[in-house]
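EI: anyone free to look at a 68-residue chain?
SC: sure, send it
EI:
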Amino acid sequence: MLSREEKKEMLADAMDTSRRDGFRVVGLKTLNISSSLDRYINFLNGIQAVYGPFKYLKSPRPMHNIKL
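SC: here you go
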């Protein structure tokens, strides 16, 4: 759950017109960028070819107080 202070901060951020305009500008710029999932996967495969297989932990990672 969000605290009252966090809710107020999020609402204030949502009302900020300069922040909104900034997101709008970035959104318009990214429309012109051609990116796809296939290109990203090819990039990751290239990185893996250079550095070898990725290491990962089999045990769960401790996570606390996660907010999205």
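EI: The mean pLDDT is 83.
SC: 👍
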